[in-house]
Amino acid sequence: MAGVVLLWGATSLGAFGLIGYAVVYTMYLKRATPQNIVIGGAAGAAPPVLGWVAVTGQIDPHALLLFLIIYVWTPPHFWSLAIHRCEDYAKVNIPMLPVTHGVAFTRLHVFLYTILLTVVTMLPFATGMSGPLYLLGALALDAGFLYYATLLWLRPDPRLPMKTFGYSIVYLMGLFSFLLVDHYMPILINALS
Questions:
Q1: How many CB atoms lie within 10 A of CB 45?
Q2: Rounded Cα gap, residues 88 and 94, in angstroms
Q3: Which segments of the chain have a pLDDT < 70?
Q4: pTM tops 0.85, yes or no
Q5: pLDDT tens digits, one per residue of 78-96
Q6: What is the DSSP string of 115-183?
Q7: Amino acid 70: pLDDT
C-alpha cells in the first residue's frame, strides 16, 4: 500500500510540473505577462522535489531548497536569452521582459536576480544540507555568474547576453555537481580509510 501511495504522490507531482509547464506556462503565461518566466519558473523547478519524493516518500525542506535555487536561477537564465532574441519575441507578440520594458531594464533585472541567486545558493550550507566543498564551489560559480551579470548590466555588448546564458547552463550543472560530490565525499573518505 505504501508503494501505491508513493507512486501516486510522485505521479501527482510530475503531472503538476507537466501541466504547469505545457499548459499554464506555454499556452497561457508566455503570452499573457512579461513576468511569465518568474511565474512559470515553478514548473521548471519542480523536478528536484519530484525526485526527492520519489526516493524518500516525503517533501523535505532540503528538496524545497533545490526548488528555490532553480526557481531563482530561471529569470536570469531565460532573460539573458530573451535579450538576445528580443526582436524575435517582438515579431510574434510574446511579451517577454525586454520587449515590454526594454533591454536596459531586463539587463538590470538579470543582475538583481543573480544577486538574489547568490544569497539563495548559500542556504544549503547555512542549513546544514551541504558542507564546505559545496560552499567553496558555489561561491566560485556565483562569482562567475555575478561577473557576467554585471558586465551584461553595465555594457550593451550584443555578445554578452548569450555568454551570460551559456554560463548560466554551466553554472546550474556545476552547482548541483558540487552538491552531489559534497554529499558523497564523507562516504568516500570513510570507505578509503
A1: 21
A2: 9
A3: 1-35
A4: no
A5: 999 999 999 999 999 988 9
A6: HHHHHHTTHHHHTTSS-HHHHHHHHHHHHHHHHHHHHHHH---TTHHHHHHHHHHHHHHHHHHHHHHHH
A7: 97
pLDDT of residue 150: 98
Closest CA relative to residue 162, chosen from 90, 78, 99, 98: 78
The residues near 88 (Cβ < 8 Å, ≥ 6 apart) are none
- Cα 71 from Cα 49, distance rounded (Å): 12
Residue among 146, 115, 121, 20 at smallest CA distance from 65? 121
The candidate with the shortest Cα–Cα distance to 75, out of 32, 118, 39, is 39
Grid cell locating 20: 504547469
Per-residue pLDDT at 34: 64
Q: Please give the biggest Cα pair distance in the chain.
A: 62
What would the 3-class secondary structure string for 94-128 be?
CCCHHHHHCHHHHHHHHHHHHHHHHHHCCHHHHCC
**Phi, psi of 83, rounded to the nearest 5 degrees:** -60, -45
Q: For residue 16, how far is the Cα from the chain centroid?
A: 18
Contact criterion met (CB below 8 Å) for 79 and 97: yes
* Helix axes of 132-154 and 160-192: crossing angle, nearest 10 degrees: 180
Record the cell numbers describing residue 123, joined without a space: 542556504
